[in-house]
Amino acid sequence: MGQEISISERLRSLLLKDTKVVILTGAGISAESGVPTFRGEEGLWKKFRPEELATFDAFMANPQLVWEWYEYRRKIIEEIKPNPGHLALVDFQSYFEKFDLITQNVDGLHHQAGSKKIIELHGNIKRNKCIRCGEKHEDLNKALPGIPPKCPCGGNIRPDVVWFGEMLPQEAIQYAFEVSSACDLFFSIGTSAVVHPAASLPVIAKRNGAYVVEVNLSPTEISHLVDESLFGKSGEVLPFLVKLLK
Ligand code: BV8
Ligand code: ZN
What is the distance of C-alpha 46 from the center of its chain? Predict the structure, then answer.
């Protein structure tokens, strides 16, 4: 067990079944599973900048490079499993009557951990779609060989994730704004809170009276506005909080 975790009386008093809870997770919650984060020293971006890879233009300019970068990430994700942080959120979901889990992650680990009704703001790296006809290609055996593979219509297949400069799925972000503005307790977990519009969710929660708690290894863009920062590994802090649920 890592360093001692202490929480405020205020937070303790909010850990009741009828508290409306919203969770926002970022790459940090998957770090202990072995998924490299985006901006850490071992971050995915160390060789490339986000603009070079996670954008539509980058894909059109160099479909093979972008496709292979996602294949590299999918390989990492295939070998790993959810960690105690993901599993603790499954316990949260069964404890709190009104609970929403919103994630920026595309690794599918919340699904694998057993969370239900996950709001995936940035898509899912395990899904693919055709850039021409939009057909979803869950598995690629219907696709024509190539790097990237081709849809039977001739279009290039791309990962079904939201790239920089692309709109988020309308329904997902609408719902995320709605529940964030109506909750009592908002957790921002393992995110540097740099990427918008996801990073505006804790701000909206705070503005609407929620108690906002951040779980991170170090301060972030929103540390100045949250009510409480729990510094530590999410794989340790979250199971500690689960133990406090009556
Ligand atoms: C949009 C999917 C409207 C792909 C991702 C100029 C032009 C166009 C847009 C913009 C622009 N300038 C700004 C914007 C908006 C832009 C943006 O926010 N840019 C940022 C970089 C400034 N946003 C967009 O483009 C969004 N769309 O705005 O549409 C629009 C439409 C058209 C034209 C204009 C506007 C789309 C954003 C979605 C991008 N897609 N992912 C892929 O994954 O390949 S974002 C990517 O970053 C991931 O989803 C990731 O989750 C997300 C956020 O990063 P984090 O999760 O926070 O990860 P990070 O590494 O940064 O931090 C990890 C944290 O964990 C750290 O704090 C670390 O301390 C902590 N940690 C580490 N280990 C642990 C831990 N914490 C706890 N425990 C641990 N063990
Ligand atoms: Zn097609």
Answer: 20
